[in-house]
UniProtKB/TrEMBL annotation:
BP terms from Gene Ontology: methylation
Name of this chain's protein: SET domain-containing protein
Coiled-coil segments on the chain, per record: none
InterPro entries: H3K9_Histone-Lys_N-MTase, Pre-SET_dom, SET_dom, SET_dom_sf
PANTHER family assigned: HISTONE-LYSINE N-METHYLTRANSFERASE SET-23 (PTHR46223:SF3), HISTONE-LYSINE N-METHYLTRANSFERASE SUV39H (PTHR46223)
Subcellular location: Chromosome
Domain Pre-SET: 48-138
High-level lineage: Eukaryota, Fungi, Dikarya, Basidiomycota, Agaricomycotina
Recorded GO CC terms: chromosome; nucleus
Originating species: Cylindrobasidium torrendii FP15055 ss-10
Keyword tags: Chromosome, Metal-binding, Methyltransferase, S-adenosyl-L-methionine, Transferase, Zinc
Main location: nucleus
């Protein structure tokens, strides 16, 4: 069954039709699965780690703390550079770091800002309740995979209390492919009108590109994306999230046990407070505008959007998985 892979508190509900549970034709995991010889496996050599004998949050000399702080400054600089929205700019500028823990995570496990996270790892001496290991611990609240009236299966938050903004929800797991392999699989998927591929091309990779190229990032020439994630054969409950034009989830790059900047976990965090019983959704293609993509002539890639949000654009990228 879907939930036997160490997954807690997930139930199914269908008040719409006779299907008892969604089709489960994939390998269930919360990890990234490297596929093929050209994709490096997660490596602990050279990975940043700490030797804290007291809790990391209490140790001013924790090496993971300084690492996260450095990355925060780098990544925020890039975010400011690419974020053209003035309101968002003002918000970024005002973000105070460090928190009282010294990490991007606050004491209650939420992030101060939705920027890439660098967690403590297998080589660190701290234990599993370290504040900088949030994604490595159980989620801590129940979810229901339920049948919606018009949008197939979806996922609902079924905790008893309000889930605060910037809370960890889960990892969008899948196979990691080279771009070549992804192109080949993409052609097959296009024929079946389904999209399972997710580019690992987060804006913060510009720093890594600059290091490799030895020059400033060039928007026209440089390509940050080296690997693509495929959630067709491998995945978890996150593949049932529906699209919404005004979603309550966002994706945040997350590093654990891996030093390769181009291979990161794509973690879902809440964008704002979420109330018990609310469906969890994210925007399948936030940067894409209708004109650019020519929706009308591209019906395999796009579908009518039925999210019901006030700002609904009327269409969406086809389901990423399922
Ligand atoms: Zn530490
Ligand atoms: Zn550490
Ligand atoms: Zn730690």
């Amino acid at each position: 069954m879907l939930v036997n892979a160490g997954e807690e508190d997930i139930s199914f509900e269908n008040n719409v039709d006779a299907e008892s549970a969604p089709p489960v034709e994939f390998y269930y995991t919360n990890e990234l699965v490297p596929s093929g010889a050209d994709v490096p496996s997660p490596s602990l050599s050279d990975v940043n780690c700490c030797d804290c004998l007291i809790p990391c949050k209490e140790n001013p000399h924790c090496a993971c703390k300084s690492h996260q702080k450095q990355k925060f400054e780098d990544d925020r600089a890039i975010q400011l550079l690419i974020d053209k929205d003035e309101g968002a700019q003002a918000q970024w500028k005002n973000t105070k770091y460090p928190t009282n823990t010294g990490f991007l995570y606050k004491e209650n496990g939420t992030l101060i800002e939705l920027l890439p996270v660098y967690e403590c790892n297998a080589l660190c001496r701290c234990n599993e309740d370290c504040v900088n290991r949030r994604s490595q611990r159980p989620r801590g609240f129940p979810l229901t995979i339920f049948k919606t009236a018009e949008r197939g299966w979806g996922v609902r938050y079924d905790g008893k209390t309000t889930l605060p903004g910037h809370s960890f929800i889960g990892i969008y797991a899948g196979e990691v492919l080279t771009e070549n392999e992804a192109d080949q699989r993409g052609r097959t998927y296009d024929r079946s009108n389904r999209t399972y591929l997710y580019n690992l091309d987060s804006a913060h990779l510009r720093t890594a590109c600059e290091k490799i190229n030895g020059r400033p990032f060039n928007e026209e020439e440089d390509e940050c994306c080296k690997y693509v994630m495929d959630a067709h054969h491998v995945g978890n409950f996150t593949r049932f999230f529906n699209h919404c034009c005004q979603p309550n989830l966002v994706v945040v790059p997350l590093y654990v046990d891996n030093v390769n900047p181009f291979i990161y976990k794509t973690a879902f965090f809440t964008w704002r407070d979420v109330q018990p019983g609310e469906e969890l959704t994210f925007n399948y293609g936030p940067g894409i505008t209708g004109n650019e993509e020519g929706i009308a002539g591209n019906t395999g890639k796009f579908a009518l959007c039925k999210c019901g949000a006030r700002s609904c654009k009327g269409w969406q990228l086809s389901r990423l998985a399922l």
